[in-house]
Amino acid sequence: MLNIEATIKQLVTHSEEPFCAYLYDLGELRSHAQKMISALPKNAEFFYAAKANPEREILAALSPIVDGFEAASGGELKWLHQLHPEKPLIFGGPGKLPSELKLALECGVDAIHVESQNELKRLAELSAQMGRPAPVFLRMNIPLDNIEVTKLAMGGKPTPFGFDPQELPDALAIVQRSNYLELKGFHFHLMSHQLCVDTHLKLIQLYFNTFKQWCTDYQLSPPILNVGGGMGINYQDPGNHFDWWRFCEGLKVLIDAESMNDTRIRFECGRFVTATCGYYVMEVLDIKRNHGEFFAIARGGTHHFRTPAAQGHSHPFSVIKGGNSEVSVENEKITIVGQLCTPKDVLAKSEMVKSLSLGDYLCFPLAGAYAWNISHQNFLMHEKPRVYFL
Ligand SMILES: Cc1ncc(COP(=O)(O)O)c(C=O)c1O
């Protein structure tokens, strides 16, 4: 694992302008992903959901470790296929264009996650026209049976995602009528930001039971059950992220108890894979007091690092000394903002700092997932941050 403070101190010496950058610790990423995968049960597969961070170097680091990649748009699919033509790919997401479905068939993807009957019919027509088999997973939105939801639920209630189980007979009839659609499995991704292992195991148990029931009711034997991703990062209490290791132990027990050993259990995780390898670093440009409250204005902002604004949280950070001490605050609460002319450009709100001076560096960890790539990068035409893959 990199010594981030020492690395930043070294990098800033090469910067003529106030410093602003993303740093990715690729060694940490590799070792974290490797550990995650070695903890899984034998019949599990692990795909990386590229939407969390599709940077070329991140994908290259993960490629030898994961079983494949998940793409949620034609753009991601093209990018992944171009960079890693040898890797199995999943193509999911709502509102797929006919041209994107065609691309998926041409790329020979491992799975197309179908979201609706219209999409299924469109895929049946296209695959017949092209004379190419289409490996299909039906994405299902099932009731949650009192399982507690997280702050970001994609199912268990009316949403645009997946089939209502009532539509399953019609969907299966479409598959059966086609000579080209091949049902390879069912797909569930009902929630993200999961922090509770026991709740997530209950959710997986619901997936298992539903899968088995459908196999019996409709005399099916699809080889794979995709259980999505959704393992959470605890931005408020970084010592308490989702406990993947305890989860994997519980999963092994559950697989035995529910006799799921003959089904391949496929994961497609994003946030939990890459969040911890990324850091966003900003240099403090200004410190001021306004109506009794302190503000630090730092180089960059939510147009680079939208995660805190998107999640509505105050992002954890550390201060790396580097500035002069003439303008500084000590033992004060301070709000960290960026350079945008909107009061929403807040990265951390009223947080206590021991000492903060002009020219110090603010280092935001947990910035490796849904960070740079979900930010409104062109707003105000500020420069982009530097990016270091270390
Ligand atoms: C269908 C699907 N699969 C996987 C993921 C990855 O989720 P996470 O990054 O929470 O692991 C998402 C995230 O939105 C998703 O929508």
From TrEMBL:
Membrane-traversing stretches: none
Keywords for this protein: Pyridoxal phosphate
Domain Orn/DAP/Arg decarboxylase 2 N-terminal: 27-275
Pfam families in the cross-refs: Orn_Arg_deC_N
Cofactors, names only: pyridoxal 5'-phosphate
CDD domains: PLPDE_III_PvsE_like (cd06843)
Source species, domain of life: Bacteria
Alphabetized PANTHER family for the sequence: DIAMINOPIMELATE DECARBOXYLASE, GROUP IV DECARBOXYLASE
Protein name: Type III PLP-dependent enzyme
The organism of origin for this protein: Microbulbifer epialgicus
